[in-house]
Amino acid sequence: MNKSIIVFLLLMATLFSCTDPTKLGADLLEEDQISAGFTDTLSLISYTVEGDSVRTYTGTFASQLNRYLFGDFTSPVFGRSVSTLYVQARMPRGATGFVIEPEFKDTDLLDSIVLVLPYDTAGYYGLTNEVFGMEVFELSESMVDIADYYSDQTFQTLPVSIGSKFFIPKKDSVEIITYTGTNPDTVKVPLQLRIPLNQMWGSAFLFRDTSTYKSDSSFLDFFKGMQLKPSSQNGGLISFNLKSSAGGIYIYYTRDGKGREYQLPFNALAARVANYVNDHSGTPVANFISNRQLGDSLVFVQGMKGLNTVIEIPNAAALKGLIVNKAELEVFVNGLGNNVNYPSLEYLSLLYPRSGDTLQVVSDIALASTRRFSVFGGVFEKGTLGRPDVYRMNISVHFQDMIDGLVSNKLYITAFPKPEDAAFVTLLGSKHPLYPIRLKVAFTNVQ
């Protein structure tokens, strides 16, 4: 049979899809028949599972997190969420890529040593206009800048704090004094947290042997990095941009009566790792975790290493022989635990088990590339005409693979980008009487 005729008829069938399959082109195709149809009644199973650890650092700079969550807060529905940070400071580098040595002198006087953490307000979640606490410890265990680290990673620290501060997170620029020019200069810089570190501890940076600053490796033998630990419980989490060139440790000192400064930055070579704890014990969601029966009514999705929703489509293989024109997963919001201070997740993603416990994004996301949200969807939408808020996800390519037996019939709904988002959302389950999770499929059947 002429393949161009079949392709033409398949396209025409897509345009005229309806609920009842309609026979098309029988006179042209002789014994072959094409029918187009639509269904949204596939049986689905939904339930909630604990999330696995997520990658929070990789040696490839472009693939590292854009924001790093920090804090300790508890939701009455989802439980406790804690983020502790580990970060290296590195030697500064010039335009040629070589390290810039400080050339400290024995006669220099240390004025102060300050940890600078640029804020990223786009990552704030919950009540952040409160007093937050941070305690800083020096690492006794090395971080490896070319390794992959996940959210369950910890590093050993020395027992004594080298700095601490209670603060209300900034939401606007701040004024600081810089000593990079001939004279001190007061400048306005993007919002940042500045924590004075222990003066006696900091003096060691001035009086180290000059060999300490000859290379990154010799410097990291001396100073392995820091742990940034929350010391308060709050109504939300804040976030920092640890990829910013403004971040790092600033050493302020005086030479011959004139102020100077030297920065040890969090540059592209610096490892920076977030450790997450999501504890659901004693909360309403705890009873739903891995409970398929309760998952019929409600399921839950959470950022960080928090909860995921599993969707199973047990009868997908029964559709073998169909050509999927479009498959859209529609998930409605219940909103338990969400309010004006704790909005629902802005974006959802879909993963599937590829081999063992490894999860991978569905093909439709991979193919969408930079047009992810316009092609795949997964964007929070306000409900209209009295209907609940909703997320819609296009899984046409992936569902075809599922029908053909190439992938598992299991999907994972997860937050996006999960390692950078502290938000959560409660969704209606697959057996909700009015707004169940539905897979809407427009198809063509070539017999």
Summary of the model, kept short:
By secondary structure, this protein is mostly beta strands. It contains seven helices and 28 strands.
Could you characterize the architecture of this molecule?
A hairpin with a 6-residue loop joins strand 12 and strand 13. The protein is mainly beta and 447 residues long. Residues 1-31 have low confidence and may be disordered. It is 11% helix and 39% strand. The longest helix is centred in the N-terminal third of the chain and has 13 residues, at 3-15. The chain has helices spanning 3-15, 26-29, 199-206, 216-222, 363-368, 372-375, 396-403; strands at 22-24, 34-39, 45-49, 55-57, 68-75, 79-87, 109-118, 125-126, 132-139, 149-150, 157-167, 174-178, 185-189, 192-196, 226-230, 236-240, 248-255, 258-265, 272-279, 298-302, 308-312, 322-332, 348-355, 358-361, 390-394, 410-415, 424-428, 438-446. The chain has 7 helices and 28 strands. Strands 5, 6, 8, 9, 11, 15, 16 and 19 form an 8-stranded antiparallel beta sheet that branches. The chain has a 5-stranded antiparallel beta sheet with strand order 1-2-28-22-25. The chain has a 5-stranded antiparallel beta sheet with strand order 3-21-26-23-24. The chain is elongated and about 90 Å long.
Helix fraction bin: 10-25%
Largest sheet: 8 strands, antiparallel
Tally of separate helices: 7
Rg, please?
A: 27 Å
For the residues shown, what is the average pLDDT? 89
Oligomer: single chain
Give the class from helix and strand content and strand pairing.
Answer: mainly beta
Distance between the termini: 13 Å
Quote the beta fraction.
Answer: 35-45%
Residue runs with pLDDT of under 50 for 5 or more positions = 1-31
The dominant shape is elongated
Task: Tell me the number of strands.
Answer: 28
